[in-house]
Input
Amino acid sequence: MSKKKSETTLMDNNSFTVELEKHLRRELGTSPKRATAHDWWQALSLTLRDINLDQLQQSGLDENQEERHVCYLSMEFLMGRLLGDALMNLGLYETAATLLQSYGVRLSDVLDQERDMSLGNGGLGRLAACFMDSLANRNIPATGYGINYRYGLFRQVFVDGYQKEKPDVWREFGSPWETCRPSETVEIGLFGHMEMDHDGNNRWVPSKKLFGVPWDITIPSFGGQYVNRLRLWESLVGAYPIDLDKYNQGEYLEACRNLVDGDTISGVLYPEDSTPQGKDLRLIQQYFFTACSLKDIIRQHKQRGLPMGSLAKHYALQLNDTHPAIAIPELMRLLMDEEGMVWNQAWAITQEMCHYTNHTLLPEALEKWSASLLGRILPRHLQIIEMINYVFLNGEAKEQWGDNLEIIQKVSIFEELDNGDRMIRMANLSVIGSRRVNGVAALHSGLVKANLFPEFDALYPGKLVNVTNGVTPRRWLAHCNPGLARLLDRNIGTDWRTDLDQLEKLTPLAESPDFLDAFANVRFKNKERLARLIEKECKVTVNPNALFDVQIKRLHEYKRQQLNLLHIISLYHEMLDNPDADHTPRVFVFGAKAAPGYVLAKQIILAINKIAQVINNDRRLDDRLKVVFLPDYRVSLAEQIIPAADLSEQISTAGFEASGTGNMKLGLNGALTIGTLDGANVEIAEAVGDDNIFIFGKTVDEIAALQQQGYNPYHYYESNPVLKRAIDSLMNGSFCQHKPDLLKPVAEDLMHRDQFMALADFESYREAQQKVSETFRKPRLWWRKAVLNTARLGGFSSDRSIADYAEKVWGE
Ligand SMILES: *Cc1c(COP(=O)(O)O)cnc(C)c1O
Output
């Protein structure tokens, strides 16, 4: 795709000013003279939203389009802040800055007023946000469907080093970006029973009704000409949420029951990441947004006057993980029970329309629902799933495997439990009901084929494919790193924003000392800015000349923040032992939230905070070692950390990180990666070349072999004195003298369990870190590698991912 970048904006300065002031007066009841920064934020956002809405009518909703409309179904959209990105996309950044300046207001202060839209946990939700951006940029008609949570991911604060969670009140008085479309409200059913009607047909009689009210957010392309939308559903019970009779009798609580119930469904985002949450409410959330979205799609299809038989020709559903997998039986139900199709026709359409993205191999993270629970909430869907399974097992499966019971039990949608209940394997349902299944990095997709679904791969050759993840260069380069963006513009032109392969043109500049200096200078400015933020948030002074070593991602044992921590302790000991040696100064930066119920992850956070406190206050180190944990990791914080990172920590146990996208964001901005051969690190290493990345640790096969022979972490502890000393210092209270036992649980887990084999990779990690320190001391060498990282990672644009989806997944 090569799109012309329009130099003209969609609105001239004059009309922009007029519109903006109109919003200030009418919506906010204020004036340019009196407006607060928050007022300006709202008025600016409303103005840009209006421009997008005007464009939307001309692009994404074109009723006559022939192309398949992509419906991206995701329980999570981690959008972050929208204003800065929108100003950049619409070419109004400078205009807005100048206008505000004339009123004595700073644009950066206005942008800081926006609360992140944190309707997601981490990588999976952020991927959905990047894909929405790239779908618009590829001019692919698309709608993102999700839930308009009242409260997004919790806000994280630290109290005495402990993580505490606070509710995320992100749209208390509404968000200027969201437009409610009450006329497109849909109704769905829940619970109830099955009934035979007089024609002998099985009918679902739900006992509870629920309304889904859509809230739309516009998603503009760069330049703003093409606009798609994100449609988020809010739940409402009944048309009359308050029972006035009861209310008048004084039964206030009872009267508001509907209000309370309806509210809970789209009330909060589950803060779980990489583990499923087996709660009724979660299943209801999944069904709620999926069913609302399918109703919405069918309504639009009919409005266009098209026959139901052609539904799959006009719409493709992409299921982001198995969270929306209930779409498969729901679509079957709609086509049969409401549209009167026979099974085979409905099944052909369903299988043609659905596509499923797998995000994890962790067996404990694969969703399963108890059949009795699902049958109570969705009795008709249980019947349909049983029928899908019956047809599958007695048809394709029997033909392929005969009576091989072991395989039949493995591919069955149902897993029989000893207690008589059955579990529904949502992944098996998704594979059987989809036209394509994709993993999210080459290594991961290979493992999906070889380890997770080998039987399905044999049964359906070509169904399982790979689409490597990507990140949008608009947000993760142009917007978050304006200094680097200007440097790129001056040297390779401006087209890289929509054609990231243009970055290749930087390759010869890696040999130019002047360019390396300019590149290093941009980084230095970014590090000064981050240092100010660290000072403000953590009350720690850091030296911008030090190596900024960054690990930012959810806190999870498989991501191994604990391995990073052990290395930090070993560096600390080394500096104390040899105070006069020439140590490379380092600042370790962490950002990570732990799921509230994940005890060990929270203990690791505590350990990092406690160790940071001791190290940061140890005068003997002469400020050569600092550790900071920035609270409340989120998109807008990532945007400030990434441009300032020298080293990107991607140190998961090989075989456990499906792809990672943080690795791409950091590498694109010129951070060097220290990482294992896991997820997309493998492809990143291929792209940048072995000399420009620090790879360490056991491979997938070596990890598997170690697991096979029985992993014993204690062996590593005993035989490596550096490691032993680090763990002992966690055990003996060196970092928390008032409560010497405080960090024992972390130490004991490492010595005796260490599920993700941090100890097995420790020595290799430490050696790689020594190479990092040596390289950082040779600036020419370091900056050459950094430039080559930026130059060679253009392929990790989500524009490329979306082109791959269009070709390998949604295409023929
Ligand atoms: C990119 C991103 C992630 C994913 O990071 P990984 O390192 O790939 O796990 C998580 N959270 C936020 C806020 C992000 O921006």
Observations:
- Residues 504-698+762-802 form a domain with the Rossmann fold fold (CATH 3.40.50.2000).
- Residues 122-123, 126, 553-554, 634-635, 638, 660-662, 665 surround pyridoxal-5'-phosphate (CB under 6 Å).
- Residues 329 and 374 are 12 Å apart (CA to CA).
